[in-house]
Amino acid sequence: MCSRDCCNNKGPVSRTKEGNPCEKKTQKQESEIIVPTPQSLLYPYEVIQEIADFIVKGSGIRPKIGIICGSGLGSLADIIQNPKVFDYEKIPNFPVSTVEGHAGRLVVGTLEGANVMAMQGRFHFYEGYPLAKCSMPVRVMKLCGVEYLFATNAAGGINPKYAVGDIMLMHDHVNMLGFAGNSPLQGPNDPRFGPRFPALVNSYNKDLINKAIEISKTMGIESSVHVGVYSCLGGPTYETIAELKALRMMGVDAVGMSTVHEVITARHCDMKVFAFSLITNKCATEYSDKKDDEASHDEVMAVAKNRQKTCCELVSRLVAEIQKTA
Hints:
This protein has 326 residues and is of the alpha/beta class.
């Protein structure tokens, strides 16, 4: 590896006997070589266990259902009864969320008689966090006792049949980050979490999807509830027209910047997964000079705020259905 001084040298260069002035490395140059830590070693089992023990001890509750609140959907955690609140910055070894609409706290309590824990604020790849860190809280949930993961997100609707404010129950995903070889499971596998090669064919629990569809009928919102395919891109930019067209050709109905790596981690440790996207904007798939066709975070937050009550009721009723079979 060339040293910084060598490559910036504008004057005459003295060659070594081998003929290459950059071949001989000094001890200082060798120390500058950085070997990245494999993602799976960023948070080893013992560290995850320490975080989980801290939460269980502090709350006095061993939760059964974990909820990840998407952008603008933090009110899902506000409906939890007898809440014990943990700010992320006060949890040992826990990252901090930096995105508007993500409060950055963990709430543990009861909902419809079930013990639950909810993340008000998730971690995103575009914040500079590796995927293993983004999905680390899912493993914390597992070691706290969580059996079911509810993952929610705000997403752009690619399917032309979707309207702003609709809810898409996720039954599959296209992992674009995975296409690039980026996975939360990269590195040595710890069998205490799960197998080396987990299957993802049935990642989203069909029974929970069917129950959510029935609940939507009783709520009178079945016309605005769909079942579809989600895709996660790295962000933080919204997608180009060409990218959206390509995703639509692949069968993607909604697109966002989260959730997929959390689902992968949850399935790796054998959690049952239910996930839905709140469609907060319609993705433009035709070229236009209109500013209205451009997505914005303000729009996302406004739509999420307007649909909070509906999303909370859907989640509450589904939690009640799970509790019935407990």
